[in-house]
Structure formats: structure tokens, C-alpha cells
Amino acid sequence: FSNKMASPPTVSLSSGGPRVAGLVEEFQRRFGSAPAFVARAPGRVNLIGEHIDYSGYGVLPMAVDQAILIAAAPRADRKLHLENTNAAMTNREYPAYPVAIDNTKHDWGNYVLCGYKAIVDAVGPDAKGLTMLVDGNVPSGAGLSSSSALVCCAALATARANGVEHTKVEFASLCAKCEQYVGTEGGGMDQSISFLAEAGTAKFIEFNPIRATSVTLPEGASFVISNSLVEANKYVTAGSCYNKRVVECRLAARLLCHFNGVDKEGKLRTLGQVQAVLGLSLIEMAAQVARHLHAAEYTQEELATTLGITVQELQEKWLSPSTITQTTFLLYQRALHVYSESQRVLDFQKASSLQELGTLMSESHASCHELFDCSCPELNQLTELCRANGALGSRLTGAGWGGCVVSLVPTPIVDQFVAAVRRLYYEPEPRRLAQVDASLFVTQPGAGAAIFE
Asked: CB 17: neighbour CB atoms within 10 A?
């Protein structure tokens, strides 16, 4: 295990490289004085284990080099003043305390407020006013966790400014809870890897409680990211995509309890909890799904009747505000994906050959596409194209419905692989070609969140 009790490291400003130095200069130019420090939180790529963290299962991400930076300094008035180096993100200003987040609007400032709130709710009315200048090079809507990196970076900066100390695990846990203020019901993967990542190793991250184990992968291959450039916004489509999957998994868990005669009170809410109570293996849980759940859509009425409750009770206890208007739910497919994908994560850690790793990645993509229905035509095209050009395995990464593909590529052919993907996916479309340099890259496991001071 990595040292659970450690706090995010503080390192010298001069070790931050040109991006950090450039942000310090820009802060000075805008505000007339230097920032007190710069906080950094990386994005991530999930190698395998998609849409299972919120069911309680472990995942296998690594941090990428792309990260959110926040240069910050205290201010005398009781304001939180936000600026962004991206001119499309206009300035925001809020009272330093108390913090109110309007999640009816999708706004960049809300993600900063989530991280800020995670800290100042405990600090109280003495919370310091702050000026923050944000600089991000994690592409948004790409499945590389730009929004969670922003939440984590804001929390780290706010804690530093207010003299609050937390361990990496405490930060991850706080940020996972607070990100739900924007209206998405995520698990804890993105926040955990942003704090717990270490350069040179992927991490097996488990939940309840959060813990991370380094995973050494067989040598001789590299991970290549390619962005489909279909922007997938978790917040905008929450009710019909992301949050709906969370609810479908919750409903599947409820039905499995019902048919097994356990948890009459309805306390269990995840597929992982159901497995633990039944004491079965993941493969046996997949058999339970086949035995008890049907592949056709469930309506709210059928679910309520099966569970012996009213539709109103179903909505209040088992749905969420963004999913109440959804009329049908697929449970068999979602639960089968969660149990099979969780098994693939375990198999991935035991795999002794690159071929095995690649096969598991490709099986993961097929399950995301066919059972979890979180792919899109461009992602399917891109994974096929990657496999046809030498990838041992290729899959969507992140929530899906757009965003990035991660491919496992033998190191000797990486250059020709990248050239082929560029030629076949990016060059035919001028819009894609214009963004290719930030969209197609080889990545190594990067370091976790830190303060430069």
C-alpha cells in the first residue's frame, strides 16, 4: 500500500517546470504580485474497470501528465475571485463564506466551488478570501477527468491557503463527496488517483475505505491515448446517461436482494454490497443476474410492483432527481457488465503477458458498448482502427459517450501506430486534424497532486 497517512507533497516552485513558471508570471501580470503557491492536480486515464467504482468495485487508473494548475494568493476582502487562462472561461466572484453552488447551471466556477466548499465548510466563517488563477491542459469532456482534477486542485489550494492539513486519502474522500454538488453521482476513482498517483506505476484503487496498491505491468508496451473529439459532458446528459447508469445499477442491486430474500429494509444500494451479503464470487453473481433479471426494459411500474412499493416510493428511495423522468431501465445488461468488468480488473493484475492485458482491454470495450451502452460510433471506429494497426487491446476510457480511447501498443511499433491513427482518424477531417497534437499521445504513469511553493 502507498502511505495512506501522507499528505500531498510540497515541492519547490523552481521544480514545477515551464508551465508553473508561466502561470506565476501571468498571475503577477494580472494581479501585480506573486502568488503564495501553485497547486497541481493531474487528470487520469483508466486502464480498465469502467463504471464500477460507484458499485463499490476496484479500478485501475494512472495519472497522466496533463494537469490542472491553480496559482493562489489570499486577499483582504471576503471574496473568492476566480480567473482562468482560457479566455472562454470568464471571471467569477463569490463570497468567501458560506458557499452556495447553483447546480442548475453548468459552469466552470462550480467545479472550483466544489473543491473550495470541501474545505471551507469545516473552516467556517473564518475562511480566507482568495484569488485563484486556473490553468488547465486536461482536455474537457475527453474522459480524462478534467472536472475532478479541477475539484481536487481547488480543494488542495483552499486547504493550503487556510492552513488545513489532510492526508491524500482524506482529500480524495472529501472531493468525491463534494463533486456531487454539481449534480453528478460519481464514484471515487477520479479524485483518488489524482491524489494517490505515483510516477511510474498504475494503481489498483479500492473503496470503502479508499486504498491504493501499486500495479506493475509487464514490460514492452506503452499506453497511447487518442481523443475521439466527441465531447462527452457528464453533467449535461446526467439524467439519460451517467446518473441513469448509477440508478440502473442501484435498481439491479435492489432486485437481486429482493429475489434472494435479503435486505428487506432496503439498506444495500450497490452491486458490490449485494455480492458481499450473498458471499458469492463475481462469476456466481453473473449467474445470479442471468437467473433473476430479464433482458427486456423494466418500467417504473414493473419495478414498483415487483418490489411491492408505489411508483412514488420507488422514485423517492431508488431514483435520483435527474432520473425521475426516465421511463425505462435496463438492469440485466448493467449488472452483467459490472460483475464481468470487476472480474477483468482482477484478471488484469494477474496477467502475465501483454497479449492477455490487451484481450482484457478489448473485452472491456465490448462490454461497455454492448451491455453498458456507453460507447458511441466514433469510439467504436477508433478502437477497431487501433486494433487493426497493431494495438494489442483498445478501449474507451472514462465515462464514455465520447472522449478518449486508450490502447496498449508494443513499444517498438509505437511511432508507426501513432502515424497510422493520425492518418486514418484525424487527417480526413480538418476539425480533428487541427486538434491532433493534443489529442493523440503516448502516456506514462504520472505523479499525484502537489503544492509548488
From this structure: 9
Alpha-helix residue ranges (DSSP H) falling in 89-167: 108-123, 146-161
Q: Quick: pLDDT tens for 400-445.
A: 999 999 999 999 999 999 999 999 999 999 999 999 999 999 998 9
On whether the CB atoms of residues 183 and 60 are closer than 8 A, the answer is no
Nine cell digits for residue 182: 454539481
The answer to whether 69 touches 36, Cβ cutoff 8 Å, is no
Q: What is the dihedral angle through the alpha carbons of 86, 90, 94, 96, rounded to the nearest 10 degrees? A: 20
CA-CA-CA-CA torsion for 182, 184, 190, 195, nearest 10 degrees?
30
194 by Cβ neighbours in 10 Å (0-12 / 13-18 / 19+) ranks as: buried
Residue in the block written with cell 443476474: 289
Q: Which of 119, 44, 35, 160 is nearest to 85 (CA)?
A: 35
Answer yes or no: pTM beyond 0.70. Answer: yes
For residue 214, the surrounding DSSP H or E stretch is strand 211-215
Nearest one of 145, 235, 130 to 197, comparing CA atoms:
145
DSSP characters over 149-205: HHHHHHHHHHHHHTT----HHHHHHHHHHHHGGGT----SHHHHHHHH-BTTBEEEE
> Residue 209, SS3?
coil
Q: Are 355 and 349 in contact (CB under 8 A)?
A: no
Q: SS3 for 428?
A: coil
d(CA 395, CA 50): 10
Radius of gyration of the chain from its Cα atoms, rounded to whole angstroms? 22
Nearest-angstrom CA–CA distance, 290 and 93: 52
- Write out pLDDT tens, residues 149-192: 999 999 999 999 999 999 999 999 999 998 888 877 778 999 99
- Looking at 53, 135, 190, 373, which residue is catalytic? 190
Judge whether 407 and 224 are in contact, CB under 8 Å: yes
Unique residue bearing C-alpha cell 463504471: 51
190 noted as active-site residue: yes
> What are the beta bridge partners of residue 214?
203
Residue 34, amino acid: A
